[in-house]
Write a structure and sequence with these properties.
- Helix content is 28%, strand content 19%.
- It contains 10 helices and 9 strands.
- The protein starts with a helix and ends with a helix.
Length: 413
């Protein structure tokens, strides 16, 4: 197996060995100047693969949307294969604390286990629900970098209303929201290269020991885990599973969009500074690009994605089409001015170009190709956005805008 992995990684070596023909980026260099963005053409989101214009919601849902999801699955993120052996899923509430945060919330630690004859894997999710709110509550499901088994989700000893890892839980409770934590490392390692443990072996077919070129990498596996958490929430009477917003930052922002596009049970998606393979457009080649992603994190995407290194123009999809697949459910994109690696302008344009599908479905999208002023949030729209001063992080300002957007769409409307 180690020999196979070494061979696969060596296959990437030529991708970083020479200057690209257009001179725009090469090993150790990326475009970080708007004037250097190459001319590009986006694939039309409302034209089928057969060249037919999509003019009705029925044509979108029955023809174009499935085409787009198939392309993203097979070429970018990887599909989840059908397991050769049936997988049994069980839920177990490990412990319940009804006095969490001074009695304002109830915390449940829930184990979700998957098993078949090939092995087993499990994930622990955390579910916080407001004790004072009318049940069942809407919830924010966060795809988190934090391990659910450490103390980061305990009450912060010096910051009332916050968890140790800085999550403003009190603000969510006050607005009547529950909070659900799904750890990114529960079923697959952050930068997995072997796929011999975790969830993948349960899906292998006879004599298979590694995902096929079009099968799921790390991001797709985490997206799958989010849907399994939602399976549990459908059984929890304290959470309204029809009003669950999925949220993620950076790598988890990319995962959030792929999870929400595939699983229409998620009522709303919030993608924070997701950049390349998230909300930003591939064809701008600004900041992180396909080359940088697959050389640093070779299996976040499926292996087929490697074919598009320095060939992003050949991609039959771009990220505005992924955001469009979330429609008509609300989607919110967040950028940071100094987060140039994630391409704030490209993130906005991804949301802007997705908006034509929202309009086709009778929803409100972004109307101007010009990015809004820094610090100004677009909330009362089915496609929301803000760009704030600062770098690659989620600040309290961002959380307040996320909650305002979720509250507007899931509570007040």
């Amino acid at each position: 197996m180690k020999k196979l992995i070494t061979t696969c990684l060596l296959c990437l070596a030529p991708l970083t060995a020479s200057l690209a023909e257009d001179g725009k980026y090469h090993d150790g260099d990326v475009v970080l100047d708007e004037a250097m963005v190459p001319p590009y053409d986006l694939p039309p989101v409302l034209v089928t693969s057969e060249g037919k214009a999509v003019k009705t919601p029925e044509e979108w849902f029955n023809v174009r949307r499935p085409q787009i999801l198939s392309l993203f699955g097979n070429l970018i993120y990887g599909i989840v294969p059908s397991p050769e052996l049936p997988i049994q899923t069980t839920f177990e509430v490990l412990k319940t604390d009804s006095g969490f945060m001074g009695g304002r919330a109830t915390r449940k630690d829930v184990k979700i286990k998957f098993a078949n004859a090939r092995g087993s894997a499990d994930m622990t999710i955390l579910v916080f629900t407001p004790n004072a709110a009318v049940k069942p509550s809407p919830a924010i499901l966060q795809l988190s970098f934090a391990n659910t088994k450490d103390d980061g989700h305990d009450v912060h000893p010096e910051k009332p209303g916050f968890l140790r890892n800085g999550i403003p839980l009190s603000e969510m409770l006050q607005r009547g929201f529950g909070y659900v934590v799904v750890s990114q490392g529960a079923l697959v390692r952050h930068n997995e290269v072997e796929f011999q443990s975790g969830i993948h072996p349960l899906f292998y077919r006879t004599n298979q020991s590694f995902p096929k070129a079009n099968e799921w990498g790390c991001i797709a596996a985490i997206a799958w885990s989010a849907s399994r958490a939602l399976d549990y929430l459908e059984t929890d009477r304290d959470i309204d599973a029809r009003r669950v917003a999925i949220l993620g930052h950076s790598k988890m922002g990319k995962t959030t969009l792929w999870a929400a596009a595939q699983d229409q049970r998620f009522a709303l998606a919030i993608s924070a500074q997701s950049g390349c393979a998230g909300a930003a457009l591939w064809k701008r080649n600004y900041g992180e690009n396909m080359e940088k992603m697959v050389t640093r994190f070779p299996y976040w995407l499926c292996r087929n994605a490697w074919k598009f290194v320095r060939n992003e123009d050949d991609l039959p999809v771009d990220q505005h089409m992924l955001l469009a697949c979330i429609a008509p459910r609300p989607v919110y994109v967040h950028s940071g001015v100094d987060d140039t690696w994630a391409d704030p302008r490209g993130e906005y344009l991804g949301a802007y170009h997705a908006s034509e599908v929202y309009r086709l479905l009778g929803k409100k999208g972004l109307t101007s190709e010009t990015s809004p002023p820094v610090g100004e949030a677009i909330i009362q729209s089915d496609v929301g956005y803000h760009n704030r001063p600062g770098g690659h992080s989620i600040e309290l300002f961002d959380w307040l805008k996320f909650l305002e957007f979720a509250e507007y769409h899931l509570v007040k409307k």
